[in-house]
Amino acid sequence: MADRRLGLPNLALQLVGILPEVQRPSSTVPHRQKLAYTAVSLLIYLVGSQLHVYGYGVRSPSAAESQYWVDMPDLNSVMCDGIMPLVLSEMLLHLLLRLKVLRVNNHEDRTLLNRVQKFLGVVCAAYFSICRVLISTILGKLTIAQSILIVLQHFFGCVIIIYVDDLLKKGYGFLSSIPLFSATDICASIFWKAFSPGEGAVTSSIINGNYKLSSMHKVLGSLDLPEMASMLTTCAFFLFVLSLQGFHVMLPVRSSEEASMQMNYAIKLSYFSFAPLLFHDALAIFLYFISELLRVKFGENNKVVNLLGKWKKSQCFGQAVPVIGLAYDMTTPPTLADVGRHPFHTLVCALWQLLGCGLVSLSFFSVCSHSELYVGRLLGGRRNATTAQPDSVPLLLWRCYVGKAAFLVGLCIGALRLLAGLAGVVGSGTGIMIAVTVLYSCFEETSLGGRPAGAFGF
């Protein structure tokens, strides 16, 4: 019996082989062409994120209110699922490799992994599209024709993103679509809140004539106008996060072949930040969405609905905010005054941010540490062998030490998220950290001339 590639049965290999493949470039793509491919990819994503699905009605105000607390595309757009199929397929692939369901034995198997990930992404796209229509059916009636049409539009929107990601990762772009599209959403949100005619802080200051130094204090402390203080805080937080990029810790690893020698590896601490930034927020988004869905379906007097979260319109922010329940405990206090008024809520929120981010970072390192590409990018360049020191780490225990570093980085990410929420930055602290990390990674990839990888180094 012939060996099965990746340990998959022939039927699965045939299904994976149906999907078309983006060919790798025969030579290095020039920077100008990479810039053009990246710009066109961003244009496709931005247009698709605002292109309304044919068959939906006007979005209800309640859905938009809960959306205020997260950064995501229009819920009724063609590409509303965004990068979620890509993220889920990449993590499923890591998990299958970790559980030895898939086995990589040679270079051909490694090439086939890209097709498997693409196939998993298509399956996830179909799943998300069907679930979205089922949820819409719960909230309001849809005909069979409307349901089929909406599923097809969402599905093909996700497939387009999957192949755009494949194009960028094959070397035609500077970065893969997961971090690139995330940073684009966040930067667009911050730019809109700064310069939009209706709510932009800078635009409102210019229109109202508050651009003189003598009147700037009115803008910085005003509650009836968009606050310039939030913009200044956002800029300061951006610069602070940017200053943290590039930090690394030297890990001396004792050689297994010769105990008297050690190799010094530089661990890139910022490489641990993607997992808690993406997935810790995803848990909160899921709870907010379920809370909003159950409130619309069963009303506000249901005990289960109130346990998950009860929303009330805020006079200060003009949006619905959680006032009780799990959604309230997971939400950072909107102002510093609320910290003193609700110390228990602040404590629970701090524990959720710190421990949640730390555990997510540690868990994803444990899952992804088997990937050679992930480990290579995490450890950075290898220095020359030196004489082993007493504090050097045995080769078999390096994952234990790096796991501790991943947990500590997760704690720092949680602290930065909490600080950003209390400081009142525009958008969210998570969004700014993702944008800064992506921009720095893009600069690093360009300067080193490397090939773009996925968000988790695969």
UniProtKB/TrEMBL annotation:
Q: Where is it mostly found?
A: plastid
- Give the record's membrane topology: Multi-pass membrane protein
- Report the record's Gene Ontology biological process terms: protein transport
Give the location in the cell.
Answer: Plastid, Chloroplast thylakoid membrane
Name of the molecule in the record: Translocon Sec61/SecY plug domain-containing protein
Matching entries from Gene3D superfamilies are given as: SecY subunit domain
Keywords from UniProt, A to Z, are: Membrane, Transmembrane, Transmembrane helix
User: Which family is this sequence assigned to?
Assistant: Belongs to the SecY/SEC61-alpha family.
